[in-house]
Amino acid sequence: MSSQVWLPGATAFSLLVITLPSVRRLASRWQLYDLPGQLKIHGQPIPRVGGVALTFALVTSALASETSFSAHRIAFFLALAVIWATGLIDDLVGLSPWIKLTGQFGAALLFCQIGGWEVLVSTNVPLNVAAACLFIATFVNAFNFLDGADGLAAGVAGMIALGYILLSIKAGTPFDCVAAALLGSCLGFLVFNFPPAKIFMGDSGSTTVGFVVAFLSMDFWRAKNGAGHELLLPVVFAGLPLLDFFLAIFRRLRKGVSPFAGDRFHLYDLLFQRGWSAQRVAIACYAVTGLLMMLGWLGEREEWNSSFCFLLALVFGCLLLAAVRLGSLSFDTSARMQEKS
Hints:
This protein is mainly α.
């Protein structure tokens, strides 16, 4: 495999492992903790701004690997900066969900307008841009929702990045540099975040990771001309966080509460309630993501024929059934927390 693919990953991993201990010490000195609470799985304060080191490692390694800066790439880094800054402000002083959502849509619009990115759902350009903004905000918040247990967001995002790297090597598509930087950053972060976590990435990390995964999805579509069955592969790769996200939104709306009203009915929460350890939950989520990645690769090879589409529907149907049987559509009004996006 080309060193051009893996060098950004090795650089990001090294930078993360070097810088994160310093960020952790500063977070402890400045009392930037995620405190224990009714809806927390940890019993002691944990530093929560690991996203600072993660984003630094990711951006530095990706920038160092760029040989030219097109409008597409400039738009990516500018939008990422807005997403990260919004998340960091929330980590430091707290923001309302609607302000955070405004920042996310603003970053997505910046990304689309400067870089010309869009999701091709029709011949109407404004509609395509709106679809792209909604797509990005969905991924950003899906990974934010997933970041409720040790090692989940970093591990799942790292596996998705690996999936795109392998597709890039196979097809010669242009998203290998950012994917490798994301993989290296996530692996480095897991050194400190795999259960039991020593630091959390916070919103500045989870929203950044979600945005980068959304970017890789759109970059894949651009490389494949964004038509036909190619639109499904990024959704398959990120099937686990997306499933948990849409179940959470549906569950809360069905109960007449804000979609940002937190609860203890995410998939990982339900597994904890059944006595699973944090390590077991993390490994199970990695396994499900690995299965979905293999399905995505199989679909690329089989060109998404009817038999494969049936297999895909069967797998997602089983995941949905398992989630519902676990209780993902329940909502205990006594188990609310402050709004979160």
